[in-house]
Amino acid sequence: MKAGIVGLPNVGKSTLFNCLSNAKAQSANFPFCTIEPNLGVVNVPDPRLEKLEALVKPERVLPATVEIVDIAGLVRGASEGEGLGNQFLGNIRECHAIIHVLRCFDNDNIVHVDGSVDPIRDKETIDIELQLKDLETVEKRLEKVTRAAKAGDKKAAKEMELLNRIKETLQTGLSARSLQVNEEEKELLDSFQLLTAKPVLYVCNVDEKSAKNGNAYVEKVKEVVKNEDAEVIVLAVATEADITELESYEERQMFLEDIGLEEPGASKLIRAAYHLLNLQTYFTAGVKEVRAWTIHKGDTAPQAAGVIHTDFEKGFIRAEVIAYDDFITYGSEAKVKEAGKMRVEGKEYIVKDGDIMHFRFNV
Ligand SMILES: Nc1nc2c(ncn2[C@@H]2O[C@H](COP(=O)(O)OP(=O)(O)OP(=O)(O)O)[C@@H](O)[C@H]2O)c(=O)[nH]1
Ligand SMILES: [Mg+2]
Question: Which residue ranges does the record assign to the TGS domain (predicted)?
Protein backbone atom coordinates (compact mmCIF):
# COMPACT_ATOMS: atom_id res chain seq x y z
CA MET A 1 0.00 0.00 0.00
CA LYS A 2 1.55 3.28 -1.03
CA ALA A 3 0.61 6.93 -1.33
CA GLY A 4 1.80 9.01 -4.27
CA ILE A 5 2.74 12.69 -4.14
CA VAL A 6 1.03 14.41 -7.06
CA GLY A 7 0.93 18.01 -8.32
CA LEU A 8 2.14 20.47 -10.95
CA PRO A 9 5.88 20.68 -11.63
CA ASN A 10 8.03 22.73 -9.25
CA VAL A 11 5.45 23.04 -6.46
CA GLY A 12 7.60 21.29 -3.85
CA LYS A 13 6.76 17.60 -4.20
CA SER A 14 10.33 16.32 -3.97
CA THR A 15 11.12 18.76 -1.18
CA LEU A 16 8.13 17.35 0.68
CA PHE A 17 9.27 13.79 -0.04
CA ASN A 18 12.64 14.68 1.48
CA CYS A 19 10.97 15.91 4.68
CA LEU A 20 9.17 12.60 4.97
CA SER A 21 11.81 10.11 4.04
CA ASN A 22 15.50 9.64 4.52
CA ALA A 23 15.85 8.66 0.90
CA LYS A 24 16.99 11.94 -0.61
CA ALA A 25 15.26 12.83 -3.85
CA GLN A 26 16.65 15.43 -6.19
CA SER A 27 14.84 18.72 -5.82
CA ALA A 28 15.64 21.85 -7.80
CA ASN A 29 14.11 25.09 -8.94
CA PHE A 30 13.04 23.99 -12.40
CA PRO A 31 9.99 22.12 -13.69
CA PHE A 32 10.34 18.38 -14.39
CA CYS A 33 13.29 17.95 -12.09
CA THR A 34 11.79 14.57 -11.18
CA ILE A 35 11.25 12.04 -13.98
CA GLU A 36 11.64 8.63 -12.37
CA PRO A 37 9.49 8.20 -9.27
CA ASN A 38 11.31 8.16 -5.92
CA LEU A 39 10.11 5.55 -3.45
CA GLY A 40 10.57 6.02 0.28
CA VAL A 41 9.67 3.80 3.22
CA VAL A 42 8.65 6.20 5.94
CA ASN A 43 8.31 5.52 9.66
CA VAL A 44 4.90 6.38 11.04
CA PRO A 45 5.38 8.59 14.11
CA ASP A 46 3.24 7.19 16.94
CA PRO A 47 3.40 8.61 20.48
CA ARG A 48 1.91 5.34 21.80
CA LEU A 49 5.14 3.53 20.93
CA GLU A 50 7.11 5.86 23.19
CA LYS A 51 4.72 5.19 26.07
CA LEU A 52 4.98 1.44 25.56
CA GLU A 53 8.75 1.72 25.36
CA ALA A 54 8.86 3.57 28.68
CA LEU A 55 6.82 0.83 30.35
CA VAL A 56 8.32 -2.30 28.77
CA LYS A 57 11.92 -1.08 28.32
CA PRO A 58 12.58 -3.36 25.34
CA GLU A 59 15.91 -3.88 23.55
CA ARG A 60 14.51 -2.26 20.46
CA VAL A 61 11.48 -0.46 19.11
CA LEU A 62 10.18 -0.82 15.56
CA PRO A 63 7.63 1.65 14.24
CA ALA A 64 5.08 1.00 11.53
CA THR A 65 6.04 2.15 8.06
CA VAL A 66 4.22 3.45 5.03
CA GLU A 67 5.43 3.76 1.44
CA ILE A 68 5.44 7.19 -0.17
CA VAL A 69 6.22 7.80 -3.84
CA ASP A 70 7.43 11.12 -5.22
CA ILE A 71 6.01 11.37 -8.74
CA ALA A 72 6.90 13.70 -11.60
CA GLY A 73 4.86 16.86 -12.09
CA LEU A 74 1.80 16.72 -14.33
CA VAL A 75 0.99 19.46 -16.81
CA ARG A 76 -2.04 20.42 -18.84
CA GLY A 77 -2.42 17.83 -21.61
CA ALA A 78 -0.86 15.01 -19.54
CA SER A 79 -3.85 12.79 -20.33
CA GLU A 80 -2.92 13.08 -24.01
CA GLY A 81 0.70 12.29 -23.31
CA GLU A 82 1.97 15.86 -22.89
CA GLY A 83 5.15 16.12 -20.79
CA LEU A 84 5.54 12.34 -20.52
CA GLY A 85 2.02 12.40 -19.11
CA ASN A 86 1.23 8.76 -19.82
CA GLN A 87 4.23 7.51 -17.91
CA PHE A 88 3.51 9.79 -14.95
CA LEU A 89 -0.17 8.88 -14.87
CA GLY A 90 0.91 5.25 -14.88
CA ASN A 91 2.99 5.97 -11.77
CA ILE A 92 -0.10 7.41 -10.10
CA ARG A 93 -2.18 4.38 -11.05
CA GLU A 94 0.16 2.15 -9.06
CA CYS A 95 -0.54 4.13 -5.89
CA HIS A 96 -3.45 3.49 -3.54
CA ALA A 97 -3.92 7.05 -2.34
CA ILE A 98 -2.96 10.54 -3.50
CA ILE A 99 -1.19 13.32 -1.65
CA HIS A 100 -1.96 16.37 -3.79
CA VAL A 101 0.53 19.21 -3.25
CA LEU A 102 -0.66 22.75 -3.94
CA ARG A 103 1.67 25.73 -4.07
CA CYS A 104 0.36 28.28 -1.57
CA PHE A 105 3.41 30.53 -1.26
CA ASP A 106 4.56 33.61 -3.16
CA ASN A 107 8.14 33.75 -4.34
CA ASP A 108 9.15 35.30 -7.64
CA ASN A 109 12.34 33.28 -7.72
CA ILE A 110 10.51 29.95 -7.86
CA VAL A 111 9.14 29.33 -11.34
CA HIS A 112 5.45 28.52 -11.62
CA VAL A 113 4.65 26.65 -14.86
CA ASP A 114 1.54 28.79 -15.35
CA GLY A 115 3.19 32.08 -14.47
CA SER A 116 1.29 32.93 -11.28
CA VAL A 117 0.36 31.45 -7.90
CA ASP A 118 -3.20 30.12 -7.91
CA PRO A 119 -3.78 26.84 -6.04
CA ILE A 120 -7.42 26.62 -7.11
CA ARG A 121 -6.53 26.78 -10.80
CA ASP A 122 -3.66 24.34 -10.20
CA LYS A 123 -5.92 21.85 -8.45
CA GLU A 124 -8.36 22.06 -11.32
CA THR A 125 -5.59 21.51 -13.87
CA ILE A 126 -4.52 18.30 -12.16
CA ASP A 127 -8.10 17.13 -11.51
CA ILE A 128 -9.03 17.65 -15.17
CA GLU A 129 -6.08 15.62 -16.43
CA LEU A 130 -6.88 12.76 -14.08
CA GLN A 131 -10.56 12.92 -14.98
CA LEU A 132 -9.81 12.92 -18.73
CA LYS A 133 -7.59 9.88 -18.31
CA ASP A 134 -10.34 8.14 -16.36
CA LEU A 135 -12.87 9.05 -19.02
CA GLU A 136 -10.67 7.28 -21.56
CA THR A 137 -10.45 4.19 -19.32
CA VAL A 138 -14.21 4.19 -18.73
CA GLU A 139 -15.04 4.55 -22.41
CA LYS A 140 -12.77 1.69 -23.39
CA ARG A 141 -14.32 -0.52 -20.75
CA LEU A 142 -17.83 0.55 -21.76
CA GLU A 143 -17.24 -0.56 -25.31
CA LYS A 144 -16.36 -4.04 -24.10
CA VAL A 145 -19.16 -4.52 -21.58
CA THR A 146 -21.85 -2.99 -23.78
CA ARG A 147 -21.32 -5.78 -26.27
CA ALA A 148 -21.53 -8.41 -23.54
CA ALA A 149 -24.56 -6.75 -21.95
CA LYS A 150 -26.40 -6.77 -25.26
CA ALA A 151 -25.65 -10.47 -25.56
CA GLY A 152 -27.54 -10.96 -22.28
CA ASP A 153 -24.68 -11.00 -19.74
CA LYS A 154 -26.26 -9.81 -16.45
CA LYS A 155 -22.98 -8.94 -14.77
CA ALA A 156 -21.94 -6.89 -17.77
CA ALA A 157 -25.25 -5.05 -17.63
CA LYS A 158 -24.57 -4.02 -14.04
CA GLU A 159 -21.11 -2.90 -14.93
CA MET A 160 -22.41 -0.93 -17.87
CA GLU A 161 -24.89 0.91 -15.67
CA LEU A 162 -22.15 1.89 -13.21
CA LEU A 163 -19.72 2.88 -15.95
CA ASN A 164 -22.34 5.17 -17.45
CA ARG A 165 -22.84 6.86 -14.09
CA ILE A 166 -19.09 7.30 -13.68
CA LYS A 167 -18.90 8.71 -17.17
CA GLU A 168 -21.57 11.30 -16.40
CA THR A 169 -19.82 12.22 -13.17
CA LEU A 170 -16.51 12.73 -14.94
CA GLN A 171 -18.14 14.71 -17.72
CA THR A 172 -19.54 17.18 -15.22
CA GLY A 173 -16.00 17.81 -13.95
CA LEU A 174 -16.30 15.70 -10.82
CA SER A 175 -13.99 12.92 -9.69
CA ALA A 176 -15.11 9.29 -9.52
CA ARG A 177 -14.63 9.29 -5.75
CA SER A 178 -17.56 11.70 -5.40
CA LEU A 179 -19.99 9.10 -6.74
CA GLN A 180 -22.32 7.46 -4.20
CA VAL A 181 -22.05 3.68 -4.53
CA ASN A 182 -23.20 0.61 -2.60
CA GLU A 183 -20.95 -2.23 -1.40
CA GLU A 184 -21.26 -4.25 -4.58
CA GLU A 185 -20.65 -1.24 -6.82
CA LYS A 186 -17.70 -0.20 -4.66
CA GLU A 187 -15.98 -3.48 -5.47
CA LEU A 188 -16.62 -2.98 -9.17
CA LEU A 189 -15.43 0.62 -8.99
CA ASP A 190 -12.20 -0.49 -7.30
CA SER A 191 -11.62 -3.02 -10.05
CA PHE A 192 -11.54 -0.23 -12.65
CA GLN A 193 -8.46 1.27 -10.94
CA LEU A 194 -9.51 4.81 -11.75
CA LEU A 195 -7.16 7.64 -10.83
CA THR A 196 -9.90 9.89 -9.47
CA ALA A 197 -11.42 7.11 -7.36
CA LYS A 198 -8.33 6.97 -5.16
CA PRO A 199 -8.66 8.65 -1.79
CA VAL A 200 -6.96 12.05 -1.66
CA LEU A 201 -5.60 14.55 0.81
CA TYR A 202 -4.31 18.03 0.05
CA VAL A 203 -1.06 19.57 1.23
CA CYS A 204 -0.92 23.35 1.07
CA ASN A 205 2.74 24.24 0.70
CA VAL A 206 3.09 27.57 2.51
CA ASP A 207 5.93 29.90 3.49
CA GLU A 208 7.46 29.86 6.94
CA LYS A 209 5.29 32.57 8.45
CA SER A 210 2.11 30.73 7.46
CA ALA A 211 3.23 27.39 8.89
CA LYS A 212 1.00 27.65 11.92
CA ASN A 213 -2.13 29.44 10.77
CA GLY A 214 -2.10 29.12 7.00
CA ASN A 215 -2.86 32.05 4.69
CA ALA A 216 -5.42 33.37 2.21
CA TYR A 217 -4.49 30.70 -0.38
CA VAL A 218 -5.13 27.96 2.17
CA GLU A 219 -8.53 29.42 3.00
CA LYS A 220 -9.45 29.31 -0.68
CA VAL A 221 -8.35 25.69 -0.96
CA LYS A 222 -10.39 24.73 2.10
CA GLU A 223 -13.43 26.45 0.65
CA VAL A 224 -13.12 24.65 -2.69
CA VAL A 225 -12.64 21.15 -1.22
CA LYS A 226 -15.22 21.43 1.56
CA ASN A 227 -17.58 19.01 -0.18
CA GLU A 228 -14.86 16.49 -0.92
CA ASP A 229 -14.58 15.01 2.55
CA ALA A 230 -10.78 15.32 2.19
CA GLU A 231 -8.22 16.44 4.71
CA VAL A 232 -6.24 19.65 4.07
CA ILE A 233 -2.81 19.83 5.69
CA VAL A 234 -0.84 23.07 5.91
CA LEU A 235 2.89 22.50 5.63
CA ALA A 236 5.85 24.85 5.21
CA VAL A 237 7.63 22.32 3.06
CA ALA A 238 10.94 24.13 2.42
CA THR A 239 11.26 25.20 6.07
CA GLU A 240 10.56 21.71 7.35
CA ALA A 241 13.06 20.29 4.87
CA ASP A 242 15.69 22.62 6.36
CA ILE A 243 14.73 21.58 9.88
CA THR A 244 15.05 17.89 8.94
CA GLU A 245 18.69 18.57 8.09
CA LEU A 246 19.52 19.61 11.68
CA GLU A 247 21.53 17.07 13.63
CA SER A 248 19.98 16.97 17.07
CA TYR A 249 16.41 16.45 18.20
CA GLU A 250 16.68 19.47 20.53
CA GLU A 251 17.75 21.75 17.71
CA ARG A 252 14.94 20.56 15.48
CA GLN A 253 12.42 21.03 18.28
CA MET A 254 13.68 24.57 18.91
CA PHE A 255 13.28 25.57 15.27
CA LEU A 256 9.83 24.02 15.12
CA GLU A 257 8.75 26.01 18.16
CA ASP A 258 10.16 29.12 16.49
CA ILE A 259 7.65 28.73 13.67
CA GLY A 260 4.89 27.93 16.14
CA LEU A 261 4.70 24.13 15.80
CA GLU A 262 4.83 21.42 18.43
CA GLU A 263 5.59 18.65 15.98
CA PRO A 264 6.59 18.62 12.31
CA GLY A 265 3.71 19.05 9.89
CA ALA A 266 5.36 16.13 8.10
CA SER A 267 4.50 13.83 11.03
CA LYS A 268 0.89 14.87 10.83
CA LEU A 269 0.94 14.21 7.11
CA ILE A 270 2.44 10.72 7.46
CA ARG A 271 -0.26 9.74 9.94
CA ALA A 272 -2.93 11.18 7.66
CA ALA A 273 -1.53 9.23 4.69
CA TYR A 274 -1.56 6.05 6.78
CA HIS A 275 -5.26 6.55 7.57
CA LEU A 276 -6.00 7.52 3.98
CA LEU A 277 -4.63 4.12 2.95
CA ASN A 278 -7.11 2.55 5.36
CA LEU A 279 -4.31 1.20 7.53
CA GLN A 280 -4.13 0.80 11.27
CA THR A 281 -1.70 -0.47 13.86
CA TYR A 282 -1.53 -3.18 16.45
CA PHE A 283 1.41 -3.76 18.78
CA THR A 284 3.46 -6.60 20.09
CA ALA A 285 5.21 -5.74 23.32
CA GLY A 286 7.94 -7.98 24.70
CA VAL A 287 11.23 -7.28 26.44
CA LYS A 288 13.13 -8.05 23.25
CA GLU A 289 11.04 -5.82 21.05
CA VAL A 290 8.14 -3.44 21.07
CA ARG A 291 6.78 -3.25 17.60
CA ALA A 292 3.99 -1.64 15.61
CA TRP A 293 2.45 -3.80 12.90
CA THR A 294 0.41 -2.52 10.01
CA ILE A 295 -2.93 -4.06 9.07
CA HIS A 296 -6.03 -2.96 7.21
CA LYS A 297 -8.99 -1.63 9.11
CA GLY A 298 -11.40 -4.51 9.56
CA ASP A 299 -8.73 -7.24 9.55
CA THR A 300 -9.39 -10.25 11.75
CA ALA A 301 -7.00 -11.65 14.36
CA PRO A 302 -5.65 -14.39 12.03
CA GLN A 303 -5.06 -11.82 9.29
CA ALA A 304 -3.20 -9.65 11.77
CA ALA A 305 -1.12 -12.65 12.83
CA GLY A 306 -0.32 -13.31 9.19
CA VAL A 307 1.52 -9.99 8.96
CA ILE A 308 4.13 -11.40 11.36
CA HIS A 309 4.34 -14.78 9.66
CA THR A 310 2.07 -16.76 7.34
CA ASP A 311 2.39 -19.74 9.73
CA PHE A 312 0.81 -17.62 12.46
CA GLU A 313 -2.22 -17.16 10.24
CA LYS A 314 -2.44 -20.76 9.01
CA GLY A 315 -2.00 -22.29 12.46
CA PHE A 316 -3.90 -19.61 14.36
CA ILE A 317 -5.50 -20.87 17.59
CA ARG A 318 -6.32 -17.74 19.55
CA ALA A 319 -5.07 -14.27 20.40
CA GLU A 320 -4.49 -12.74 23.81
CA VAL A 321 -5.46 -9.11 23.54
CA ILE A 322 -4.89 -6.09 25.75
CA ALA A 323 -6.49 -2.78 24.86
CA TYR A 324 -3.87 -0.04 24.61
CA ASP A 325 -5.52 2.08 27.32
CA ASP A 326 -5.58 -0.86 29.73
CA PHE A 327 -1.89 -1.50 29.18
CA ILE A 328 -1.09 2.11 30.01
CA THR A 329 -3.44 2.18 33.02
CA TYR A 330 -2.04 -1.00 34.62
CA GLY A 331 1.53 -0.57 33.42
CA SER A 332 2.48 -4.14 32.54
CA GLU A 333 1.13 -7.32 31.03
CA ALA A 334 1.25 -9.06 34.41
CA LYS A 335 -0.80 -6.35 36.12
CA VAL A 336 -3.31 -6.30 33.27
CA LYS A 337 -3.75 -10.07 33.70
CA GLU A 338 -4.15 -9.68 37.47
CA ALA A 339 -6.89 -7.14 36.89
CA GLY A 340 -8.61 -9.61 34.57
CA LYS A 341 -8.35 -7.21 31.62
CA MET A 342 -6.61 -9.52 29.22
CA ARG A 343 -9.03 -10.95 26.70
CA VAL A 344 -8.81 -14.18 24.75
CA GLU A 345 -10.14 -13.76 21.24
CA GLY A 346 -10.80 -16.23 18.44
CA LYS A 347 -10.72 -16.33 14.66
CA GLU A 348 -13.58 -13.88 14.16
CA TYR A 349 -12.12 -11.09 16.28
CA ILE A 350 -11.77 -7.78 14.42
CA VAL A 351 -8.55 -6.17 15.62
CA LYS A 352 -8.83 -2.65 17.04
CA ASP A 353 -6.32 0.11 16.48
CA GLY A 354 -3.74 0.02 19.28
CA ASP A 355 -4.50 -3.52 20.49
CA ILE A 356 -1.54 -5.26 22.09
CA MET A 357 -1.59 -8.81 20.80
CA HIS A 358 -0.03 -12.13 21.54
CA PHE A 359 -0.79 -15.04 19.22
CA ARG A 360 -1.12 -18.74 20.01
CA PHE A 361 -0.67 -20.98 17.02
CA ASN A 362 0.13 -24.51 15.83
CA VAL A 363 2.65 -25.23 13.12
N1 LIG B 1 10.20 29.45 -1.06
C2 LIG B 1 9.84 28.18 -1.12
N3 LIG B 1 10.41 27.39 -2.02
C4 LIG B 1 10.04 26.11 -2.09
C5 LIG B 1 9.06 25.56 -1.21
N6 LIG B 1 8.88 24.28 -1.52
C7 LIG B 1 9.73 24.00 -2.54
N8 LIG B 1 10.42 25.11 -2.88
C9 LIG B 1 11.43 25.23 -3.94
O10 LIG B 1 10.80 25.00 -5.16
C11 LIG B 1 11.70 24.31 -6.05
C12 LIG B 1 11.03 23.08 -6.58
O13 LIG B 1 10.87 22.12 -5.57
P14 LIG B 1 10.77 20.56 -5.88
O15 LIG B 1 10.49 19.92 -4.58
O16 LIG B 1 11.93 20.10 -6.67
O17 LIG B 1 9.47 20.56 -6.79
P18 LIG B 1 8.72 19.33 -7.47
O19 LIG B 1 7.28 19.57 -7.27
O20 LIG B 1 9.29 18.05 -7.03
O21 LIG B 1 9.06 19.61 -9.00
P22 LIG B 1 9.16 18.57 -10.25
O23 LIG B 1 9.91 17.38 -9.81
O24 LIG B 1 9.88 19.38 -11.26
O25 LIG B 1 7.76 18.30 -10.62
C26 LIG B 1 12.97 24.04 -5.25
O27 LIG B 1 13.92 25.03 -5.57
C28 LIG B 1 12.51 24.17 -3.82
O29 LIG B 1 13.56 24.59 -2.98
C30 LIG B 1 8.49 26.43 -0.24
O31 LIG B 1 7.67 26.03 0.58
N32 LIG B 1 8.91 27.72 -0.25
MG1 LIG C 1 10.24 16.57 -8.00
Answer: 278-361
Q: Which ligand is nearest to the CA of 30?
A: 1
- Per-residue confidence band for 266, with pLDDT thresholds at 50, 70 and 90: very high
Is 14 close to ligand 1, i.e. is its CB under 6 Å away? yes
6, 8, 10: residue to mutate for ligand 1 pocket, most atoms within 8 A of CB: 10
Q: Is the CB of 29 under 6 A from ligand 1?
A: yes
Whether 110 is in the pocket of ligand 1, judged by its Cβ within 6 Å, is yes
For the chain, the structural domain boundaries read: 298-361
Q: What is the pLDDT of residue 22?
A: 65
Does the CB atom of residue 205 touch ligand 1 within 6 A?
yes
Q: What is the CATH number of domain 298-361?
A: 3.10.20.30
pLDDT, tens digit, 9 for 90 and up, residues 284-343: 999 999 999 999 999 999 999 999 999 999 999 999 999 999 999 999 999 999 999 999
Could you read off the pLDDT of 124-150 as tens digits, one per residue? Answer: 999 999 999 999 999 999 999 999 999
pLDDT at residue 37, rounded to an integer = 87
11 in contact with ligand 1, CB cutoff 6 A:
yes
Residue 249 has pLDDT above 90, yes or no: no
Q: How confident is the model at residue 363 (pLDDT cuts 50, 70, 90)?
A: confident
Residues at the annotated binding site for ATP? 10-15
In this predicted structure, the answer to whether residue 275 has a pLDDT above a threshold of 90 is yes
Whole-structure pTM value: 0.92
Q: Whose CA is nearest to atom 8 of ligand 1?
A: 12
CA 194 – CA 139 distance, rounded (Å): 12
